[in-house]
Amino acid sequence: DGISVEELESLCVRFATEAARFIRDERPDRMGVAATKSSETDVVTVMDQRSEELLHRLIQQARPDDGILGEEGADVLGTSGLTWVVDPIDGTVNYLYEVPAYAVSVAVVVGDAQSQGGWRPVAGAVADPCLRLVHHAGRGTGAWTSPENPADRADPARLSVSGEDRLARTLLATGFGYDPQVRARQAEVLLRVLPQVRDIRRIGSAALDLVRVAQGSVDAYAETGLNAWDLAAGWLVVEEAGGVVVGVGEGAHSAPGKALTVAAGPALVDQVRTLFVGPAAPPDAAR
Ligand code: IPD
């Protein structure tokens, strides 16, 4: 319908910051770690759902013909060819414990974001309610950080990835899935990775990990098993900051997704990928 990338980007910023304000300002006081495990989890789930409902409403008011895919189950098939991919709280465990590293991720993509390949974000925003900032990008418009408050947005800061090219000097962010078997495999990989890099950070929000790569405040990020909503906005922010995001095992030109996602500057990304994938098995070791 002729909407521009810039207009989509400013919608992403508006929706993500509204939801970010909501989860910050409405965060229940009694969500502390003292409550029972199941009720804590419920409180987070309720806030997750309410944040997604808010995003859903905002998107449908502005863009009634677009699709919506959300972590909390939104799955609207649109007719326009554009789909909004939203994570209403990325970093839910941090949100639960009041560790100030969680975000709202909103992206608009072309293609089927539920498939392993073939989809691409055209605009995205990652709103950080704790720092009151929003990181955003549109395809071809660069990656920027702006204040959450629209009145202060005159002077955004441009993001650009670090130029690091040596693993031994790489500050690497990673994350872990929720499934215990997946975690066991991730821990095994770390045995090999940890001695090779400067250090590792487990920040707890994939969207903020990607933003950190874009800022150059970590050098690289790698995690297996991400979903589209975790990475859709951050992926574009990294690319527009001069970085590269690859989804290993899905072909060089397909979208990152279920397999290993690696984000870094161009001089580092292949080294990090090789580090995670491990040395190639010798031919005679096959059985
Ligand atoms: C999780 C966070 C975490 C990552 C997990 C994600 P959620 O998202 O991004 O950092 O390691 O893989 O599932 O569940 O908090 O939205």
UniProtKB/TrEMBL annotation:
* EC identifiers of the protein: 3.1.3.25
List the catalytic activities from the record. Answer: a myo-inositol phosphate + H2O = myo-inositol + phosphate
Coiled-coil boundaries: none
Keywords, A to Z? Hydrolase, Magnesium, Metal-binding
The family database entries (SUPFAM superfamilies) matched by this protein are listed as: Carbohydrate phosphatase
- Pfam families documented for this protein: Inositol_P
Any idea what this protein is called? inositol-phosphate phosphatase
Recorded source organism is Terrabacter ginsenosidimutans
